[in-house]
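>> received
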Amino acid sequence: MALTFLGLLYVQIMYMNNMKKMRDDQFAEGVKRSLYAVCTSLEQDEAKYFLEDMLSLQTDLYPRINPDGSVGINNTFTTPEGINYDLSLNMKVDRRSASPSIRERMRGKYLYQKGLLEDVILSIINESSDRPITERADSAEVTRYLRSELDNNGLTLPFEFAVVNRAGAYNYKSAGFKPTVKDNSSMFVQSLFPNDPKNMMYYLKVYFPTKSDYIFDSIRFMIPSFIFTFILLVTFVCTIILAFRQKKLTEMKNDFINNMTHEFKTPISTISLAAQMLNDNAVLKSPAMLGHISTVINDETKRLRFQVEKVLQMSMFDRQKATLRLQDVDANQLIAGITSTFKLKVEKYGGHIKTVTDATDATINVDEMHFTNVIFNLLDNAVKYRREDVPLELTVSTRNVKHHGEECIQVSISDNGIGMRREDLKKIFEKFYRVSTGNRHDVKGFGLGLAYVKKMVGELGGEITVESEINVGTKFIITLPITLN
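>> returned
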């Protein structure tokens, strides 16, 4: 389905691209036809100019034959005072006797007109390029021709133009002719009077400021189809992502249930066994054995309660805001008390815990119970994921830092344990997530401890980061704002 959606989207994009290219080609072809027609019209105007100029110097005194057989001569002339006169002479002649003479005169008239046209052509060839370009291609005429020819080709969008010489210098241009480098695709060039000498060539440049909008308007009908397909693709991708997340969550919950079953099974089995021993009369008669069994039951009950409390702690994740009892406490004293209590557990595994309280300002506003649980969780993880080949070394330190411009205290908890991979560091604060090295029997858990730590540090207005390296150790850094006196 994903490949089908992507293929459909690709086809639509290619179709739009091809349609845009086709419209560009059609536009360019229409503009080229229009510019060619404009240049042709300008050349015709120039030929008309030279023809009229030549005719103004000639007098038509050749006779014409009237329908009634008479011979007439017509002439129009202008006096120096500017008065126009028409002169007409008609003579009655014998058609038969006059025919050879008339034919000769008509032949002479034809040769005269032919010579006259040849003179005009020579004048155009020899003299046209000497005329100023502003006379040969008048700005108003060029504008009129451009507008007419573009309209004839269905291009009704606005345009700007300029006439430049071979070196690119402007001879004249319209007021809005201000193209930029990125407008090259909207610029069209046509040579004016292509028969002129190369060193005297001029070019007509036409620029369409709204060409992009014109092309876009012609393919706009494809946009909704593209958008709908894209929305379907995004919806499909989101659905797949949610499905994978749900699958992952289900797997994590299954792991959670398996781990919880194991964690509860051990203390329950121990308590059950101790209860059976209490039914033995021999045990009841031995105060030492009775005391030992009572201690075992008490320890296992505490262990079971601790596990239940860890699960209950996660109920706050379903709330918008946890209910906290905030108070000012001395972080140095609180941490010293925690490490003192935890010291026995560390020494039980042949390890050592060190406390370094370098923070001079250590007053923080926290919920003492939750903050204590945060530190205990991190210390408990250090013991769980210790290395068997070296003695456990734990260091808990505090120091003052400036974080985001605010006076803060940093609490660091470092160990020399098995460490974590880089990909695990991105996920360890997620609910139910447990690193793969934690699936050994002696480090079973719910995958809730670090999620709880992250949640509580955030609720207390702080941040937590982690640094770790395989077989070197792990360091958790908690940054909390201090309360200034």
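>> The first strand starts at residue 64 and ends at 65.
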